[in-house]
Amino acid sequence: MILALDVHYKDDGSAKSVGVLFNLKDSQPKEILVAYLEETDEYIPGEFYKRELLCLLKIVEKVSMHDLEAIVIDGYVYIDNEKRFGLGGYLWQTLNEQIPIIGVAKNFYHGNNETVKQIYRGKSKKPLYISSVGLELDTASDFITQMPGEFRIPHLLKQLDTITKEK
Q1: Which residue of 32, 70, 126, 129 has the smallest Cβ count within 10 Å?
Q2: CATH number of the domain within which 70 lies
C-alpha cells in the first residue's frame, strides 16, 4: 500500500490532516484517514517542516508501517542541490529511514534542480517536480507518471487535496 498525505490549515490555527491508502493502479482510495489538530505551530519561513511534520504524523500513526511501500507528500524531499532536507526528508528521518518518501511539488523551488525530476502528465505544459528518498528518483517519477488520471495532478492526489479542504 501507498499512503498519500496532505494538510489544510484554517485561519483559527487548527489543521486537518488527511491520508489516502491505495495501490499504484487504484483510481479510488482503499481507505481515507483523517485527523484534526486544534492547534498548530506558527509558520516560520525556512522551517515549514516543523509545522507540517506533526500534522502528517497524526495520520502515519494510524497505519501499520509494515503495510506501507511508500509515502507520497505534497512538497519536496530536498530543498536544494546539497540535499538539505525539506518536509519529505524530515519525515523519512522521523520514520527511522524505513519508508521511502516521494515528494510531489507543483512549483519549482530555486536552487533545487539536481535532486528533482520534472514530469509531465496529461496534456499539461507545466511539470510536476518529483523528489524522493529511500527510492530511486527515476522509480519515484515513473510511479507518479503511472498513477491514474488524465490531468497534471494524478486523480488520487487531486481527490486527497479536495478531501483535505472539505469541512
Answers
A1: 126
A2: 3.30.2170.10
